[in-house]
Design goal:
The complex is a heterodimer. Chain A is α/β, with parallel strands linked by helices. Chain A has one domain: Thiamin diphosphate (ThDP)-binding fold, Pyr/PP domains (Rossmann fold, 3-Layer(aba) Sandwich), CATH 3.40.50.970. Chain A has 13 helices and eight strands. In chain A, the strands form two sheets. In chain A, strands 2-1-3-4-8-7 form a six-stranded parallel β-sheet, sandwiched between helices. Chain B is an alpha/beta fold. In chain B, strands 3-2-4-5-7-6-12 form a seven-stranded mixed β-sheet, with helices on both faces. In chain B, strands 9-11-10-13-14 form a five-stranded mixed β-sheet, sandwiched between helices. A two-stranded antiparallel ribbon of chain B has the order 1-8. The mean pLDDT of chain B is 97. The chains are: A alpha/beta, B alpha/beta. Chains A and B meet through helix 6 and helix 7 of A and helix 3, helix 4 and helix 5 of B.
Chain lengths: 330, 332
């Protein structure tokens, strides 16, 4: 048995996952630096630490599946192939941004071309919209799936319950992906959550509910494939709770310390999704240290070019804004 | 071709049916809309004709109803979602205001949302504080949304058809009083047999006159038409302007009318504070001040919740008598 078979996933696919996670990590580190330099205005939520979730889920999707993202969505966009330049442009409020700079960081992954029509800044509100996207798929008898990401904070909203119930009642092709990073802003989920677990709550709606370790991209990937297979077979929605951790604060203003125990932070830092995959690949003989380094150098070079280009680019014309309010102006 | 008469409810039903026949991307869902045909029968027999794939009963989940409409619209359908009472739109305020109205703009124009949220308010039917309110003004702070409120069967049909074909989210407000009150001008009326549309964003002069403009919308157009008739007995020729679309508002038709009559009453079912009438009156003050020969009078519900008692509700809401009294004060 060679080492490829040990991982059961092609080396190309593994390298793609590794590269994307590194892109997200280095992109977000650069965003954090720009934020600290005062180059970014407005709320900016970093994805650092959660890369395994976005990449593991998105790599299991088909091109025409639709993703509904959130305000912590830079990673979802990059994982889906939205160019880093457009995501950064959006975060910096420039016309080269995905949304011409009108959305900002919280809507930066929106890209119709990449089937991300929404990244919502309202916790929980994306779930019922994903249900509607799935209604469209079912109506057209398509095999595609609507995937919606949301955090642990969303599971206590009314929208969460209405969406899960309707998706299950109408047997719609929705994959609900909860990124449980254990804190809603600074509030520990365990202090405001009733019941055993988030996945357990979802299971009450009669849908398969899985758990996966978000820092293990391969576990997320395989769990997503399993869930998607059931959904595409017409079984209705499925749910995955990914246990994960943000290595940084809630927003870039927050260092993430103070309200989270030091030992907990240290524990999770040991479960770095990038290192974890790289180590697995190395021990399977599928990655050499210099290859890892080459990816990092390549991403770093790409980012430097993008940052300069975006910083020197213009904002969208104020006079043009009014024409974007309606599709059919009266 | 001679027009036949249809009720407001029948005209809405016919408009929905025609659009569903015309375009298979039009689907209808909401509480009670399918099997029972709607509490007020606006969606009667749509299930029979179009089947359960296109006409769906939902659970009592207003957030999910509007959310699902948004998602379906993003994915190539033209959903018509129903909220049984306008008051219930409060539950879905986030989806209507913070999502539907803003998603096109904040995506830099990448997405469009061809959806209709149909609802009705029941002022005039003694439904009490939580089932009667005309909340249009609350949604006027959501540019990106279109707000339509027809006052007659002909407008109801023509506007629901235009709303379904429109690529923007439309909040389509019906009047529960016009569903049931046979004495109203807007309860029943001529509706062309042949295909027609009423454009969104265009007010209509429902009755011409030179002495005073009465701008109204929805149920109150019926009160204004009755008032204009009574006023003619006093030798006062009142012009009734029906806004039909509340947003974007047809200010031009209002200003042209005031330019002719030099007097203005704005009568509609909002609570007076910051109601639809406030927008009309302030616009005329700002852009048509020189046309006015008398102060504007606004007729609304007072700033309190609606009382349930039918007798008290009658005093609370705008009636033709109140319009007549105000017009006689203005035209001396």
């Amino acid at each position: 048995m060679n080492s490829h078979q040990q991982l059961l996933i092609s080396r190309d696919k593994l390298l793609t996952m590794l590269r994307k996670m590194i892109e997200i990590r280095m992109f977000e580190e650069r965003v954090e630096k720009l934020y600290r330099e005062g180059r970014i205005q407005g709320p900016t939520h970093l994805y650092i630490g959660q890369e395994g979730v976005a990449v593991g889920v998105v790599e299991a999707l088909e091109k025409d599946d639709v993703v509904i993202s959130t305000y912590r969505g830079h990673g979802h966009g990059i994982a889906r192939g939205v160019p880093m330049k457009a995501v950064l442009g959006e975060i910096l409020g420039k016309s080269v941004g995905t949304c011409k700079g009108l959305g900002g960081s919280m809507h930066a992954p929106i890209s119709a071309e990449h089937n991300i029509p929404l990244a919502t800044a309202i916790v929980g509100s994306g779930l019922p919209i994903a249900v509607g996207v799935a209604l469209g798929f079912k109506y057209r008898e398509s095999r595609n799936v609507a995937v919606t990401f949301f955090g642990d904070g969303a599971v206590n909203t009314g929208a969460f319950h209405e969406a899960l119930n309707l998706a299950a009642a109408w047997k719609l092709p929705v994959l609900f992906v909860c990124e449980n990073n254990l804190y809603a802003m600074t509030t520990p989920i365990k202090s405001v959550f009733a019941g055993e677990s988030i996945a357990g709550r979802a299971a009450c709606y009669g849908m398969p509910a899985y758990t996966a370790l978000g820092s293990d991209v391969l576990e997320v990937y395989e769990t997503t494939l399993k869930a998607l297979e059931k959904i595409r077979a017409g079984g209705g929605p499925a749910f995955i709770e990914c246990r994960t951790y943000r290595f940084k604060g809630h927003g870039a203003y927050d260092l993430g310390t103070g309200y989270r125990p030091k030992v907990e932070i240290e524990e999770w830092l040991k479960r770095d999704p990038i290192k974890s995959l790289a180590e697995k690949m190395k021990s399977a003989g599928l990655l050499r240290d210099e290859e890892w380094k080459m990816i990092e150098d390549d991403v770093s070079k790409q980012l430097e070019a993008i940052v300069n280009e975006v910083l020197n680019s213009p904002v969208y014309g104020y006079e043009e804004l009014a024409s974007l309010v309606y599709s059919n102006p009266v | 071709m001679a027009d036949r008469e249809l009720t407001y409810v029948e005209a809405l039903n016919e408009g929905l049916r025609e659009e569903m026949r015309r375009d298979d991307s039009v689907i209808v869902f909401g509480e009670e809309v399918a099997a029972s045909g709607g509490v007020y029968k606006v969606t009667k027999d749509l299930l029979k004709e179009f089947g359960p794939k296109r006409v769906l009963d939902t659970p009592i989940s207003e957030i999910a109803i509007v959310g699902a409409a948004i998602g379906a619209a993003l994915n190539g359908l033209r959903p018509v979602a129903e909220l049984m009472f306008f008051d219930f739109a409060g539950i879905a305020f986030d989806q209507i205001v913070t999502h539907a109205s803003k998603m096109r703009f904040m995506s830099g124009g990448q997405v469009k949302l061809p959806l209709v949220v149909r609802t009705q308010y029941s002022l005039g039917r003694a439904y009490g504080s939580q089932h009667t309110q005309f909340l249009a003004a609350s949604f006027m702070q959501a540019p990106g949304l279109k707000i339509v409120a027809p006052s007659t069967p002909k407008d109801a049909k023509g506007l629901i058809k235009s709303s379904i074909r429109d690529d923007d989210p439309v909040l389509f407000i019906e009047s529960g009083a016009l569903y049931v009150n046979r004495t109203y001008y807007g309860y029943k009326g001529p509706v062309p047999e042949e295909e027609y549309l009423i454009p969104i964003g265009k007010a209509e002069v429902k009755r011409s006159g030179d002495d005073i403009s009465i701008v109204a919308v929805s149920r109150v157009v019926s009160e204004a038409m009755a008032a204009a008739e009574q006023l003619s007995a006093y030798g006062i020729k009142a012009e009734v302007v029906d806004l039909r679309t509340i947003m974007p508002m047809d200010y031009q038709t209002v200003l042209e009318s005031v330019k002719r009559t030099n007097r203005l009453i704005v009568a509609e079912d909002s609570v007076k504070t910051c109601g639809v009438s406030a927008e009309v009156a302030s616009h005329v003050c700002e852009y048509g001040f020189d046309y006015l020969e008398a102060p504007i009078i606004r007729l609304n519900s007072p700033p309190m919740p609606a009382p349930q008692s039918a007798e008290l509700e009658r005093r609370y809401m705008v009636t033709s008598d109140k319009i007549v009294e105000a017009a006689r004060r203005l035209v001396v």
